[in-house]
Amino acid sequence: MTRWFAGTMFVAAFLLFLVQPMVGKSLLPHVGGAPAVWNTCMLFFQAALLAGYAYAHFTARTLGLWKQVVLHAVLVVLPAVVLPISILASDLSASTGSEYPVFELLQTLTLRVGLPFFVVAATAPLLQRWFAQTSHESARDPYFLYAASNLGSLLALAAYPAIVEPWLGISNQGWLWTGGYVLFGLLIASSVWTLAKAKPIAASRSLEPIEKNASQSIARVSNARRARWVLLAFVPSSLLLGVTVHISTDIAPIPLLWIVPLALYLLTFIFAFARRQRIPLRLVNRILPIFVLILALVFLTGATALRGLPVGVLLSLHLITFFLAALMAHGELARDRPGTEHLTEFYLWLSLGGVLGGVFNAILAPLLFSRTGLTEYPLALVLACLLRSDPITRNEEAETKSTSSSIRPWDFLLPVALGALTLGLIFLSRRLSIPEGPWRAAVMFGVPCIVAYTFVDRPWRFGLGIATLLIAGALAPQQELRRLERNFFGVLKVAETQTETGRTLVLYHGNTVHGEQSLERTDDEGRHEPRTYYHRKGPIGAVCQRWLAARPAGRRVGVVGLGTGSLAYYARPGDEWTFFEIDPAVDRVARSDFAFLNECRGTLHPTKLGDARIRLREEADYSFDLLVLDAFSSDAIPVHLLTREALSEYLRKLKPGGILAFHVSNRYLHLPPIVARLAEHQDPPLVVRGWDDVENRDAGKSASQWLVVAANDDVLKPIMMQRFVPGSDDPFWRKVKPTPATPLWTDDFTNILRAIAWGERDDLP
Q1: Do the Cβ atoms of 663 and 540 come closer than 8 Å?
Q2: Strand 556-560 with 603-604, pairing
Q3: What is the secondary structure of 224-257 as a DSSP string?
Q4: How far apart are CA 518 and CA 503, in angstroms?
Q5: Residue 203 neighbours by CB under 8 Å, 6+ apart
Q6: Which residues lie below 8 Å from residue 211, measured CB to CB, with a gap of 6+?
């Protein structure tokens, strides 16, 4: 019997987590590939899970066993009307130009995915409830089936990027999921058949606690206990989303990195609800404060991947801390799980906590913390510290007097004093003009961190101590940071830095540079010259100053990706330039903090906000001399801008003899062969030439990689005169061809895994 029930829950969970990256892959391109889109997807799936658990709880409380079975059998059949799952581009057309397209995304997901996901989600608590009503020897504690369910989720998470995505397009993935759903229906029928043959019992069961001191599992379910369940589910859910956005934007924009935190999240469920506890909860409570304190020190000192610790160390620190915090919360939930009569209610409250975590991170946090960055991430860490049990209890009697339930005035007063001490040391170090470095960090934060560790015996005192430390660090003036702005698409920072050429203003999205401007140097006309990837002596400088200048008067240029607007420098009187940008905040920052758009000599049309492919369709055909596509520098590249269909749309907008320029500088993805394959499949085939500009010979110039796509080499003659060394025959612009293994990306099929440049590229910024 257990094999049928565990197998059904395994397949159900496999389907739930297989559909999530599948649908996310369909949605991400339409809103530009922002990490926050993943948060919104997670929010929807958690809400659908909540609806499924609410249905399971309601039917379990109001209907008899066989009425539940009949009703659920009918629901299992209903999704046939919407299968196979598919997301159409037209579903999201209304979201173009929207700064917070959360509700459009949720509406699309509900219509296209909601019903089948709801049915599969509701199955897990129902099956456990049905199993608990049998006379099977394991029916006394059916929560072990929850571990089997999470194992299915974990395997689906690994299978998608490794097996499903490399071999199947989106439409075929929909059919694969449909086949899995049919198997799921057959397993439901088999489980019901097994249930019919089993001898049911009517009595509800109480559980044997996971730990001998976890007597609350047989206690009555009070409102306070329910609230604690919700909080314990909220914290890891919020942490999951917070750590995912943080590591994928501020540390290492590595493709598919989001899989790792989610896999760890599922592992904590497996460990927490397993029959045998392999990682004792008491040990987790001892170790967690140490890692939280180290991570707080990283936040305070600004030891990011750009300045300080290596990427590998930072990633490990964040992921280990997240794992311990999630395992603590889920371990507390498992220890406090109720008897089977409250099983469906227990899962309902867990799901509610998960949904609240998703709502907080995906919707509320970008609004509440629009000027402070990813504040929800350290906030969730503080909550985790507040919710942990006392790790220093010496005996069972002391355990019953948990410090978390006996809060004292000193638990508030000492953290406040710690925050004041930290602020005082920060201002003292500035008054003494201690230079940036380890000594300054030691003066400002070393002593406060040591003091905070002495609070570790008291969860509330320690958690609030970490909070006041972080608040004090945030209140300290940051001389380098000029602007911080956050919205649905991420966090933008404008920072003033000192370089070899003087003071410079830099625009960051996460840790990716999107342009910079000298505050001290201008050209002979008093205009600011483009720097970094857009330098006059770089590839795009050659395109704009040589090729574009050779075109007839009345030149028209379109640029996908605004950044600081550096390319506007190359506009000449009589030219018309149009920028396409998905993030309205980027347009605001480029106009208010940087000078390139204001100094443009040509006619600069208002920025077209929204998805570039959709906005380009509004432009007249055969109207652009040059289209620049500059949207591929981060981890979550908008793959829908690099498909066969997208390239055809771009070509339709070019004048005869016009060209495309692709900026493909990316540390983790090797995109030139992808573009070459797309050009090869046009009719007639196009020519692709690339310039890997890896030499920083001029001040303010960054290494970059650019491609130009044209009908033939004759079109590119104005830039083909470039040479590496005077008198050399080796051109800068070399022909780019796809390898035999390079896949053809289409709107139906893309494969990021095959595009990863294994081994980080140190030649690109």
Answers
A1: yes
A2: unpaired
A3: HHHHHHHHHHHHHHHHHHHHHHHIIIII---TTT
A4: 6
A5: none
A6: 277, 281, 335
Nearest to 559 by CA among 644, 616, 633: 616
* Cα 375 off chain centre by: 15
Nearest alpha-carbon partner for 515 in 362, 416, 633: 633
At the fourth CATH level, the homologous superfamily of domain 532-755 is Vaccinia Virus protein VP39 (3.40.50.150)
For tokens 């083909």, name the residue: 720
Residue 705 to residues 674, 698, 754, 764: CA-CA distances in angstroms? 14, 16, 19, 8
DSSP per-residue string spanning 576-643: EEEEEES-HHHHHHHHHH-STTTT--SEEPPPEES-HHHHHTTSPTT-EEEEEE---SSSS--GGGSS
- Residue 494: phi and psi, rounded to 5, are -115, 115
Dihedral angle of Cα 463, 469, 471, 475, to the nearest 10 degrees: 180
**What are the contacts of 71-76 at 24+ separation with CB within 8 A?**
72/119, 72/122, 72/123, 72/126, 72/188, 73/188, 73/189, 73/192, 75/119, 75/122, 76/119, 76/184, 76/185, 76/188
The CATH 1.20.1250.20 domain(s) of the chain lie at: 1-93+100-203
For the domain spanning 1-93+100-203, the CATH number is: 1.20.1250.20
Kindly report, residue by residue over 310-350, the tens digit of the pLDDT: 778 889 999 999 999 999 999 999 998 888 888 889 989 99
* Rounded distance between C-alpha atoms, residue 293 and residue 454, angstroms: 11
CA 350/CA 149 separation, integer angstroms = 15
pLDDT in tens, 474-501: 877 666 788 988 887 888 999 988 877 7
* Backbone phi and psi for residue 560, each to the nearest 5 degrees, phi listed first: -95, 110
Structure tokens that stand for 250 in this block = 């501020």
What residues does CATH 3.40.50.150 cover in the chain?
A: 532-755
The band of 762, judged by pLDDT with boundaries at 50, 70 and 90, is very low
* Residue 646: closest CA among 599, 585, 580, 698: 580
- Our CA angle for 736, 163, 273, nearest 5°, is 140
Q: How many residues comprise the chain?
A: 765
Are 1 and 134 in contact by the 8 Å Cβ rule? The answer is yes
Grouping H, G, I as helix, E, B as strand and the rest as coil, residue 505 is: strand
CATH code, 216-391: 1.20.1250
Query: Structure tokens of 247?
Result: 């590591």
Judge whether 675 and 664 are in contact, CB under 8 Å: yes
Give the lowest-confidence range in 116-120, 303-307, 433-437: 303-307
Q: What is the mean pLDDT of residues 707-731?
A: 73
Where b means 16+ CB within 10 Å and e means fewer, 113-132 reads bbbbbbbbbbbbbbbbbbbb
Partners of 627 in beta bridges: 558, 660
Which pairs count as long-range contacts for 101-109, CB under 8 Å and 24+ apart, including other chains? 101/31, 101/488, 102/40, 102/43, 102/362, 102/363, 102/488, 105/27, 105/31, 105/37, 105/40, 105/41, 105/44, 106/40, 106/43, 106/44, 106/47, 108/27, 109/23, 109/27, 109/41, 109/44
Tokens of residue 329, six digits: 């919360």
Cα separation, 232 vs 350, in Å, equals 8
Taking CA atoms, 513 is separated from 230, 492, 493, 536, 696, in Å, by: 39, 10, 10, 18, 16
Half-sphere CA count of 646, side-chain side, radius 13 A: 29
CB atoms within 10 A of CB 316: 12
Q: Report the distance separating Cα 506 and Cα 495, nearest Å.
A: 5
pLDDT in tens, 696-714: 667 788 889 999 999 998 8
